[in-house]
Specification:
5-stranded antiparallel beta sheet, 53% strand, 163 residues
Length: 163
Amino acid sequence: MTGPTGAAGATGPTGATGPTGANGPNPTATAGFAANTAGTSLTVALGGTPIPLPSAQVFSADITPNAGNTVFTVVTAGRYRISYHVNTTAALLMGSRLVINGVNNTASTIAPVLSVSSYENEIEVNLPANSTISLQLYPIVLAGVAVLISGGAGASLMIVRLS
């Protein structure tokens, strides 16, 4: 049979401090968001038409829009996640894409075979310093008019530096 537990002894000396653990992911200071909530009507030309994003803009100091709010310059080089949404009032046979440094980005392109009213995509890409980014609609067959929804995210663009 075991007897009762005795009184606790004195606390021993504090041990040596262990090594510092690895740092967790650091949030980036480079990020931006812009939207179009005004219900803008766009004439979509054969070569593509940039979507203006003048509403609800939030940018770090190293992302700047042009005067038309259609081209966004990213000063800091790095790996970026870029996402976009486009919502129109009617289904259209049009595509959407990002244009990065003047070149259509294939990975970001949505080219539907049937008319749609909502487009969204997200990519990761390495950008050199002073890169430009724009969001475009382009016609699959014929040029036409697209009307973005109003009172909500007719179109939006998010740019976040990952590293």
